[in-house]
Amino acid sequence: xxxxPALYGTDFAPLAGGVYAAYPERIESIPGCGTPETTYLxxxxxxxYCGGIDPSTGQLxxxxxxxDDFQLIPDQVxxxxxxAVGVIFAHEFGHxxxxxxxxxxxxxxxxxxxxxxxxxxSWSAHVQRGESxxxxxxxxxxxxxxTAMIEIADPLIITDENGQPISIDVLQDGAHGTAxxxxxxxxxxxxxxxxxxxxxxxxxxxxxxxxxxxxxxSDIERGGNTPYDGDETTDPVIPTLQTLLVDDLTRFxxxxxxxxxxxxxxxxxxxxxxxECGDVDESAFPxxxxxxxxxxxxLYDDGFARALFRTYGDFSVGYIVxxxxxxxxxTAIGSSLTGEQRVLINECLTGAWxxxxxPNDSGTQPFVISPxxxxxxxxxxxxxxxxxxxxxxxxxxxxxxxxFRAGVLGGVAECNSRITG
Length: 421
What we know:
- The protein is mainly alpha-helical and about 425 residues long.
- The protein has helices at about 5-10, 40-45, 70-80, 85-100, 110-130, 140-150, 180-200, 215-220, 240-255, 300-310, 315-330, 340-355, 375-385, 395-420; strands spanning about 20, 30, 35-40, 45-55, 60-70, 155-160, 165, 265-270, 290, 295-300.
- A hairpin with a 5-residue loop joins strand 6 (about 155-160) and strand 7 (about 165).
- The longest helix is centred in the C-terminal third of the chain and has 24 residues, at about 395-420.
- The model is unreliable at about 390 (pLDDT under 50).
């Protein structure tokens, strides 16, 4: 009601059709959306807005929302708290806005979903700033909202009518987008407000549509994951994750920074004993990977890395190891940044390396990422970010994802601009 008139010049009409909770035992019927009736199976695992302009009358029809109150909402509340409900409904209100102005951002559904995610971000920022009379969002709630966006992202791979795996295309009808893109749209609205979301009607955000190579069945069976080490595979042809990471990070940074001397990578046990590094306090050793300037080594917690690998996938390990290499690159160029500023530039530089290993058509890339790897990095940033956005040491989850995405989309040049800016 506050934002719509400023954006579109007319008042926002409340939902004429109401909001319906769907559950298996519901007796009262829910209106159909192009069908006589909406059943629980139509809503299961989802929430949706139904509405649009009738071209014959020019009037808004249906104009209601329905949600799964048996599975989706309880599961999200248990996993991410009540804020998840707000983000889900804020997204559906984004679709209600689109219906009222009869404006969808693009023929591909995913662009309409992107704008709805953006509107959800702008509403979340409004609450986080203390502008709501009924709700309060702290940094934990913002993180929970980002997590909810990830958990409701599209699957990365589906099967055809014969049960054979095929890669999903984010531009297909009905697609909501990957977690990487959904979080990006949410952050775009959070930082830029509802006006930035309206602009997406004419200038959508870029989408990264990475697909599985469906001819490589072994990669699909592994979910796109490279074996962590020799214990994970009996195939000598498949290199281990550490080998691939070291080789490719060496390739990238020796090419990007004059005189860069590749560090040695050293794994250590989670509970110690820890390696010698006079530059780093011992409290930093558990749960991480970091660069030791005095020895030119990348030191990483092997137990923590294995836990990330099992929980999220191979690129969650690549993400933390690459952040340490990014710090080595900052040291090589003589960066004087410290604290949160240095950490966030590491995030950006990790994104720049990631941009370089997104599959292209050259056929010459020695190492490429798989679908889901970007989402794994985002998930890892969520658990590593500080809870307090005012903490100026490690960066909040929101800030980490923002800078990582900036590097993925803009490369080293974007990171350099953020250093100098």
